[in-house]
Predict the 3D structure of the following.
Amino acid sequence: MAWIYEDDDAREFFTGLKGLPDRAVGLLAATILEVRLESALKVNLHDSANKKLFRMLFDYSGVAASFGNRINLGFAIGLYTEGTMSDLHVIRRIRNEFTNKQFLKDFDVQGMRTLILTLRIAEKYEINMNDKISSSGYESCSFALASSVIRQSSVENVISLRNRFIRSVELIAAFLFLEGHLSESVRRSPKF
């Protein structure tokens, strides 16, 4: 399974996500990405000594309060490529469609179909359930985990719209988790 979780509650949530209706998956999976993106951003930014700067940036009226602004900021600081930024905006739009159209229930409607078919990250990383990753030493831990996540998935293929969406979200969520928890920070040191 490609979902990375921090505790048993998160494991239970991710395991249950696959069995939920499309609307719930569209809303919850995008929310997972937004939370992980915020964590990855905070690892790569400086907060003030009194911890007020992050509150001003990320709270309700802050510059990084919206999912769209967080996505743009993540690209601006180099967390991901322009292609991933585009996929994140598509996922954000899918979440917004489910949020704003109360009768929209699944991924198999024309507007959703068009959006989901523009997701590219699912095609970029092939699922190979049989691959075994071997690693030794602390330095290769992050790489081995990323490699394992890339090859594994909670879905069997990306042919269906639902699976394509889930695969895209699980890949980006895993990379954001790694960026926020395991990678070396690219945070710049203040010059003066």
About this structure: Confidence is low (pLDDT under 50) at residues 132-140. The domain at 8-125+161-181 is CATH 1.20.120.330 (Four Helix Bundle (Hemerythrin (Met), subunit A)). The chain has one domain: 8-125+161-181.
